[in-house]
Design goal:
single chain; alpha/beta; about 250 residues; about 30% helix
Length: about 250
């Protein structure tokens, strides 16, 4: 199981994966397009566009680095929307996945809180939803999102969630955007129906940051497969949430 594209265990360069180092803050960015079913079957990833930004020293550089990452994410998000033929006036549903009561799983709620809408304006085309988790609602997240998409004639979705990684140095420092949607609960090995264009009937872009790692990936012996998170998790999630919400606001404003 993997959430980040470059942790799939495949040699991605043969599929066209391009990783480059930027000149500021030690940031690297990688991009990949899976164009057909054949390549999808070979590498285990769904067809679509993938972008990943790695900022290993994000929390050392401060506000300038955060603003730079936001600008890079907004640029990439704009490119993806353009490739999907999304128009400025199209109705978007922002979905903040995860459990807001657990900091490592709260990224969706942080972004939800930071994205601006003008709810009283008739011209408002940005809608937000935090479905919480199945164990608290008894309703599958994908069903809740699907109901809103259909009832409100949503044109596309942007889905936010915390991810898992197998590299401790990437906790809170890698930002991934894809056009392939997202599966609620996949980080804790709970595989539901995927929130994507196939299930929703509209394009679905996902944005995620890894805040959890399995103890087994650290060679830690434990009676069960524990999920671990950084000690500064509250600050890290708040920073990542602000970076992503600023990027989304820049694109949608």
């Amino acid at each position: 199981m993997f959430d980040l594209i470059d942790e799939c265990g495949q040699d991605l360069e043969r599929f066209g994966y391009n990783l480059k180092k930027l000149g500021r803050f030690g940031i690297t960015v990688g991009s990949l397009t899976i164009e057909d079913e054949e390549d999808s079957l070979k590498n285990g990833m769904r067809e679509g566009d993938y972008f990943i930004l790695n900022a290993p020293r994000l929390y050392d550089y401060g506000l300038n680095c955060q603003a730079y990452i936001s600008s890079l994410l907004s640029e990439k998000l704009s490119e993806m929307l353009k490739s999907l033929k999304i128009r400025k006036k199209d109705k978007v549903l922002l979905v903040g996945l995860g459990n807001p009561d657990i900091m490592a799983d709260r990224l969706g709620k942080e972004v939800f809180d930071g994205v601006d809408i003008v709810a009283l304006s008739k011209s408002n085309n940005i809608f937000k939803f935090c479905p919480n988790i199945y164990f608290l609602t008894g309703i599958e997240t994908v069903d809740l999102v699907e109901m809103i998409v259909k009832c409100m004639y949503i044109d596309y979705c942007i889905i936010i969630d915390s991810l898992t990684t197998n590299n401790i140095h990437r906790l809170g420092t890698s930002f991934q955007i894809t056009t392939t949607g997202m599966t609620a609960g996949s980080g804790v090995v709970r595989f539901n129906r995927r929130i994507d264009e196939e299930s929703m009937g509209v394009p679905c872009i996902s944005i995620g940051v890894p805040f959890m790692i399995f103890a087994s990936d650290l060679s830690v012996k434990s009676p069960q497969d524990l999920l671990l998170s950084p000690k500064d998790i509250r600050q890290n999630v708040m920073v990542a949430g602000k970076i992503i919400s600023n990027a989304i606001n820049e694109v949608l404003s």
